[in-house]
Amino acid sequence: GKRAPLLSVRGVKTYYGNIIALKGVDLDVHEGEIVTLIGANGAGKSTLMMTIFGSPRAREGRITYAGQDITRVPTHHIARMSIAQSPEGRRIFPRMTVYENLQMGASVNGGTHFKEDLDRVCDLFPRLRERLYQRGGTMSGGEQQMLAIARALMSRPRLLMLDEPSLGLAPLIVKQIFSVVKELNERDGMTVFLVEQNAYHALKLAHRGYVMVTGTITMTGTGRELLENPQVQAAYLEGG
Ligand code: ATP
């Protein structure tokens, strides 16, 4: 049989008060894959990512990671289970320097290998090396996004979850960021779960994708299958 997925989501329902945001979601991410979740504004993509991280909690269903049921595991424990998240809106620490932000990322795993990992993320994002002692909040949007991803990488995650890394960024920066994600996957075998509204770039990059419409997965397939799917093209690619 097939190997068990690294991350598995089954029948997950999440509510905000009485309003249902996820209506029974099934999704798998296998080791070594880039999987993307696309969908319009308000579809529930961020909610799924946050539910995997334990806040808000799934009211029904099951989430397993590396063979462990994490459905009811508190967020601060999940953060120590080799899942790293770069949340939407790139929540870096604006008053801290780039260097200090990266230290915070490393602290999750005890801060061993700090120098080595700092070097590695600065090789991936040379802009950060030039700006190590600049305050995070004074960096450009693209630089802050690079910092948010670099900070997530400092914990040496087995699963990297990115929420809309392309949001509000110039096309050239988007290309740079996506090529780093590709390199991480190809060179280091990093498993990536990518939430994106930029469907074209996300589907080109991903091995597999899921389409979410108002809290429900409506389609899944390889990145290429979804790119070539007329419904996906009409809804998410044309003019976009
Ligand atoms: P976007 O791409 O715009 O971020 P999304 O697909 O990530 O959209 P979510 O942010 O997950 O969508 O939102 C899903 C639904 O849940 C929306 O209707 C949203 O208004 C609602 N929602 C999100 N967060 C909350 C909250 N804290 N309280 C109440 N409702 C919320």
Short description:
The chain has 240 residues and is α/β, with parallel strands linked by helices. The protein is 38% helix and 26% strand.
Question: What can you tell me about this protein's structure?
Answer:
The protein contains ten helices and ten strands. With 240 residues, the protein is of the alpha/beta class. Residues 16, 21, 39, 41-47, 88, 197 line the site of adenosine-5'-triphosphate.
Principal-axes shape call: globular
Mean pLDDT: 93
Number of discrete helical segments? 10
Secondary structure class reads: alpha/beta
Rg from Cα: 17 Å
Portion in beta strands = 25-35%
What is the string of helix and strand elements?
EEEHEEHEHHHHEHEHEEHH
GO molecular function, one term: ATP binding
InterPro entries: AAA+_ATPase, ABC_branched_ATPase_LivF/BraG, ABC_transporter-like_ATP-bd, ABC_transporter-like_CS, BCAA_Transport_ATP-bd_LivF, P-loop_NTPase
GO biological process, one term: L-amino acid transport
Organism: Salinarimonas soli
